[in-house]
Design a protein that fits this description.
Number of helices: 22
Distance between the termini: 42 Å
Protein name: Protein argonaute-2
Strand content: 15-25%
Region (Disordered): 1-102
Number of strands: 42
Pfam family, one: ArgoN
Keywords: RNA-mediated gene silencing
Domain Piwi: 691-973
């Protein structure tokens, strides 16, 4: 028998032992299983041929620290903090960020690196071949990998960085600060037996079958082979089948299933092949910390499939979510909201838990295509006399492309097709070739359906749908097509549909808690035949645990103002002056008259009140030097040019726009990107904006009409931060900030996020944004943006970006940071190792590139918001006004990771629906934060978001990075709302190698514009460039 060493989604903890049903003795994998071994294979002996010996502890070359003299990197300066005060020499920072002092490794080092790589490759091959049971296999103490020759994407890591292992740190202890409250969490304890589960690979000869049909095929296979399936198996609908009782055959076995669908009978071949065995005992040992093994991911994956099996057969499954059309709500545009629930298995600090949460998403309504056409375009086939115009045809083409439709003229046999698009010609004009009596001729779609299908066309002016293979000419009239039910909408919803979606999905905490309890009741897990087959039990009640409400940091405004103490994440700055007000010498006010124009009296009142509000809080501003009304047909390029021709020293332009309009994106692109600068036809205006820069502030006309103090105050906060002012800082004498040692020496805070294209987009690039603080508060940030590959989460150019941000910090602070604290947004748990390998290495290399021996302490924290954990106060006295837990509530027990440093934290107060906490997971910590210190720091940073007088849900650096990434994506969007690399009609340059768009964003700080202000997040300082030639 052959050991295949399969690695598809299977982590540690699996025993590759003996395949059930095999009686052949083999030294590699096929040792007979003794009764006392409980199905776990024997460890491989040293003398077994064909398999290399396990590496002894003292022989693990890949884990041996590299000596400093072997790397070409100088040893760390032992003079402590004094070395950090040494200024960075100008000749050590070249234009491209490379330090000139780093030595090139000699031939000896190159030889050593080659040997290390060879040893590592051999070790990887050995691990692929070895079949050692999880109970016998010796595993590392933690998630440990050296950076030596590890490939992530296209990046190869060297061993030059510090000689340290990349190991996710253990929890330093539990937090103790704050007032303790009782909470319930949407987690339910699971009782998992100590059994062996056998995993089989499934191969179905029709690979294109959807998961729901694969499930039906497997059900038929199980029913028709009762002797083979001694107990009920579970199947993930793809490649993996799990069973408690092994099958009585060795190797692989082929079966034939007669499958009936839409009155069509098919014979489908199914091949089962033993893959591995999973010991659930190892799961318990890792949770109880009695084992040094990692938490076996394949065991958790197996439990997930067991838990979800019944739901996947009853509802419409979408990953870990399950939806039903019962109680659906229409939201327009041919869409309706389906309700469902999320289900996943999670390891915790004491046992396995099941996470249950309610969810909702948009599905396409099952309707005739002509009705869908009316929903999208408003074109009524029964009343319209004019044919469908080209604008509406293209609009409908964008919406229906990719949808599945079924034909309705064949009775019970409803064949399904995927729509490629809408034809330009009508059903009577669209021709395609057919063969009659050995001769080819062209025939119209209408004539073909009338003659061959006996279908009279009712709407001959409508175009056809092009379906099936894109290379073939399969055209079907719209009127005989219907949208297949159960299709999730992957495209971005319009503004109205989004608003309706939010209203429907938002549930108050008490209602969400009751809904979750009702889901558990309806699921009836005690009677679930699949759970019972594996002996798994689920508790009916949510877990209860303690949370802690942390002390609130004080907010400091003007020098003469006393610090404010927020109440549940909010504060009122009435009567306060900004910490540092901006000086605005010249500004302009431009009104776009689209629709109903604003009266002059309204504009005068708004202008007067805005200036008054700004001066009251400390912003120095006078009347605008330029005022204008712009007609609806005048492009922003012309409007902005007129302003600068009037006065070349304008620093700020305030635009009043009639709601959400494409002009907003045009304005930002023109004033923030190099491509935008080049869009000005007047060279003088182009050079003015390029060299001096201009800030822009947009406001909707409906808010101008209101002109209430709150709107004006928020507008002034945004303007002040954009113009280089500082709105507020944290009170350093507050009881939450006073104990923090992090601010006792220079520290830079980094925030990073990567925005990806929509789910239906298969080609557009991802955009990475990184921000870095440039003051001691921290309040002001500089930003960098990079384009990278489609859906690539790892930031590919982080090394150069970090160099840029460290330089910016030094230019403003005149000192190098001794600590670097990164808050990384958007990383899932499955990407932790990959991000740690690449991005930690990149930051460390950036420090060495700046100055040899420069090694600041780095703390790398992932911030997650896309999780399903919810917490509910047990005592109503602990609720806020919305029924949510109070701002500052922190949880680091029971539902958190068994050993690693993570916690949940509510930093904001709830407004609508049920609040979601941020989940912090520490991947690296040179600074040795205690739980209380890091939890206080993250809570404090959530109070420094400049746009409002409320704390936000994630730390300000991560929030700013999120904004920069999405702003940058809007800079790249073309007229169709897409940045696909395959089509670029915006005139932007494409990389000749990978055809990605190359777009530059302003690469200047405000200080480089010629004024004394400094950069804020809304004025980016970097450029986007393609990396395909830099790897």
């Amino acid at each position: 028998m052959e050991n295949r060493g399969r690695g598809r989604g299977r982590g540690r903890g699996r025993g590759r032992g003996t395949e059930p049903g095999s009686n052949k003795e083999e030294k590699v994998i096929g040792q007979p299983i003794k009764q006392e071994d409980k199905g776990v294979s024997q460890p491989i002996k040293q003398e077994d041929k064909g398999v290399s010996s396990p590496i002894k502890q003292e022989e693990k070359v890949i884990s041996k620290p590299i000596k400093q003299e072997d790397t070409g990197v100088s040893q760390s300066n032992t003079q402590g903090d004094k070395r950090l005060e040494k200024p960075i020499k100008q000749d050590e920072i070249s234009i491209n960020g490379h330090a000139n002092t780093q030595k090139v490794p000699d031939a000896k080092v190159a030889s050593l690196a080659a040997e290390l790589k060879k040893d590592l490759n051999q070790t990887v091959q050995n691990l692929e071949v070895l079949s050692v049971s999880p109970s016998k296999q010796k595993q590392p103490e933690a998630k440990t990998v050296r950076p030596s020759a590890v490939n992530v994407g296209s990046t190869s890591y060297s061993s030059e960085i510090r000689g340290k292992e990349y190991k996710i740190p253990k929890r330093p202890g539990l937090g103790t600060a704050g007032n303790v409250i009782k909470l319930k969490a949407n987690f339910f304890p699971i009782k998992v037996p100590d059994i062996t589960i056998h995993q089989y690979d499934v191969a179905i000869n029709e690979d294109k079958l959807p998961k729901n049909l694969n499930q039906r095929v497997m059900i038929d296979l199980v029913k028709s082979n009762p002797k083979l399936f001694k107990s009920l198996p579970v199947y993930d609908g793809k490649k993996n089948l799990y069973t408690k009782d092994p099958f009585d055959f060795s190797g692989k076995k082929e079966f034939e299933v007669v499958f009936i669908e839409d009155d069509r009978t098919r014979k489908i071949k199914v091949v089962l092949q033993w893959a591995a065995q999973i010991e659930l005992r190892t799961l318990h040992e890792s949770l109880k910390a009695t084992s040094k093994d990692l938490i076996p991911k394949d065991a958790i994956q197996c439990l997930d499939v067991v838990m979800r099996q019944a739901a996947s057969l009853k509802y419409v499954p979408l990953g870990s979510k399950f939806f039903s059309s019962d109680g659906s709500v229409r939201i327009g545009c041919g869409l309706e909201v389906w309700h469902g629930y999320h289900m996943s298995v999670r390891p915790s600090q004491w046992k396995m838990l099941m996470n249950i949460d309610v969810c909702a998403t948009a599905f396409y309504r099952s309707m005739d295509v002509v009705e869908y056409l009316y929903e999208i375009t408003g074109y009524n086939c029964n009343t319209e006399r004019q044919p469908l115009n080209d604008h509406k045809r293209r609009q409908f083409h964008r919406e229906i492309k990719g949808l599945k439709i079924e034909i309705t003229y064949m009775g019970k046999q409803k064949r399904k097709y995927k729509v490629n698009g809408v034809t330009e010609k009508s059903v009577t004009e669209q021709m395609f070739p057919i063969e009659e009596n050995g001769k080819k001729r062209n025939i119209s779609v209408a004539e073909y359906f009338r003659k061959e299908k006996k279908v009279e066309i009712k709407f001959p002016a409508l175009p056809c749908l092009h379906v099936g293979d894109e290379k073939k000419t399969v055209y079907i009239p719209m009127e005989v097509c219907r949208v297949v039910p159960g299709q999730r909408c992957l495209k971005r919803l319009n503004e109205n549909a989004t608003a309706e979606m939010i209203k429907i999905a938002a549930k108050r905490p008490n209602l969400r808690q009751a809904t979750i309890d009702n889901i558990m009741k309806n699921a009836n897990f005690p009677q679930d035949k699949y759970l019972n087959s594996f002996g798994i039990q689920i508790a009916n009640s949510m877990v209860e645990l303690n949370g802690r409400i942390l002390p609130t940091p004080g907010i400091k405004y003007g020098e003469k103002d006393q610090p404010l103490l927020p109440a549940n994440g909010a504060w009122n700055m009435k009567g306060r002056r900004l910490y540092k007000g901006a000086i605005i010498k010249k500004w302009g006010l431009i009104v776009y008259d689209i629709g109903k124009p604003l009266q002059n009296e309204v504009l005068i009142k708004f202008q007067t009140e805005l200036i008054k509000s700004a001066k009251e809080i400390g912003i120095q501003i006078d009347n605008p030097v330029y005022q204008a009304r712009a007609p609806a047909n005048e492009l922003p390029e012309s409007v902005i040019s007129k302003a600068f021709k009037k006065d070349k020293d304008i620093e700020l332009l305030v635009f009043i726009l009639p709601g959400k309009t494409p002009f907003y994106g045009d304005i930002k692109r023109l004033c923030e990107t190099e491509n935008g600068f080049n869009g000005f036809s007047d060279p003088g205006v182009q050079n003015l904006i390029k060299n001096k820069g201009v800030c822009t502030q947009c406001i909707q006309s409906k808010n101008v009409l209101k002109c209430n103090p709150m709107t004006l105050a928020q507008l002034c906060l945004k303007i002040n931060s954009k113009m280089g002012g500082t709105n507020n800082v944290i009170d350093s004498n507050n009881k939450i900030t006073r104990p923090l040692n992090v601010f006792k020496e220079p520290v830079i805070f980094l925030g990073a996020d990567v925005t990806h294209p929509g789910l239906g987009d298969k080609s557009s690039p991802s955009i990475a944004a990184i921000v870095g603080s440039i003051d001691e508060v921290p309040s002001r940030y500089s930003a960098c943006v990079r384009i990278q590959g489609h859906r690539v989460e790892v930031i590919e150019d982080l090394e150069n970006v970090t160099v840029e941000l460290l330089k910016q910090f030094y230019r403003h602070m005149k000192v190098k940071p001794r600590k670097i604290i990164m808050f990384r947004d958007g990383v899932s748990e499955g990407q932790f190792q990959q991000v740690l390998f690449h991005e930690m290495s990149a930051i460390q290399k950036a420090c060495i590139k700046l100055e040899k021996g420069y090694e600041p302490g780095i703390t790398f924290v992932v911030v997650q918001k896309r999780h399903k954990a919810k917490f509910f106060p047990v005592n109503k006295n602990d609720e806020d006004r919305s029924g949510n837990v109070s701002a500052g509530t922190t949880i680091d027990t029971v539902v958190c990771h068994p050993t690693e440093f993570d916690y949940y934290q509510y930093s904001h107060s709830g407004i609508q629906g049920t609040s979601r906490p941020a989940h912090y997971h520490v991947l690296w910590d040179d600074n040795n934060f205690s739980a209380d210190e890091l939890q206080a720091l993250s809570f404090m940073l959530c109070h420094l978001y400049v746009r409002c007088t409320r704390s936000v849900s994630i730390p300000a650096p991560a929030y700013y990075a999120h904004h920069v990434a999405f702003r940058s994506r809007s800079h790249l969007q073309n007229e169709e709302g897409s940045i696909s690399s395959s089509e670029s009609d915006t005139g932007q340059k494409l990389c000749r190698i990978c055809e990605r768009q190359i777009t530059k964003i302003v690469s200047k700080t405000a200080s480089e514009y010629g004024n004394k202000n400094v950069l804020c997040v809304d004025k980016h300082i970097t450029q986007i460039r393609c990396l395909c030639t830099e790897r």
